[in-house]
Sequence to fold (273 residues):
Amino acid sequence: MSKLIKRAFLDTEDGQILYRIGGEGKPLVLLHQNFRSGDEFRELIPIFTQKRLVIAMDLLGLGDSDKPPRMYSIEDYAKTVILLLDELGIKTTSILGNHTGACITAEVAAAYPERVEKIILCNIDNFSEEGKAALSNKFENLNIQVDGSHLMQRWLARANYVGSAELNHRWVLDDLKCFGYPWYAPFAVIEYCERMEARLRLIKSPTLILSGTEDVKQLERLGFANADNREFILTAIPHANMTEIEGGTICMMNQKPEEISKVVIGFLEKNSI
Fold:
């Protein structure tokens, strides 16, 4: 990552939040998915910093941020975004969030509309009851095993579609930082599904939805969501535009930075009507 990207910590009552910051111009906040960190945007940050002041947080409980003393809700995570904006003296920002980060982005736009310019919701899903159960069952045993078998388990979890040993290694490092702790962010998403659609209907800011074609197929194979699940967003946010990232997997932020950045920058620079 560019030497111009600095790392710093935000102090909160529930622990320190690590964030990366670099570039100059209008701000763009990047919010990662669960079991990841700001490293999810390692390839995108140098591109975005050519035109924007970029801030990428590690959500509490994930990455190099502290583990909070209680289970966090999506609303709690949204408040941490506002805390960081206040700390940096930023009045309004655009926000891009992926998966869990997309839920938090949506909540910031719904709860704090005066702080948001534009939002990009990437791979956001409203899981069914069956999907929520499948999601919980899939990851309920994220525990450190005496024989170290959890290491190979996490290595193999995405090996068939990450397509890069180096990238898979980065994902596994983030995974392992969550072992032995409560399942913070995923439980927040499951709980948020109960009111997600109602919250989305409050969003008035210009909205771009990015959907990876392989990402949603993978969720369907795992039993988490249906392939057409994301269409509900266009009903809840009728002024939104959806763009499919062909071949985009759960790792698409790392795998397709040029394509994603082109679409996002075009959206951010387009004058709102």
In short: DSSP finds 13 helices and eight strands in the chain. The chain has one domain: 6-269.
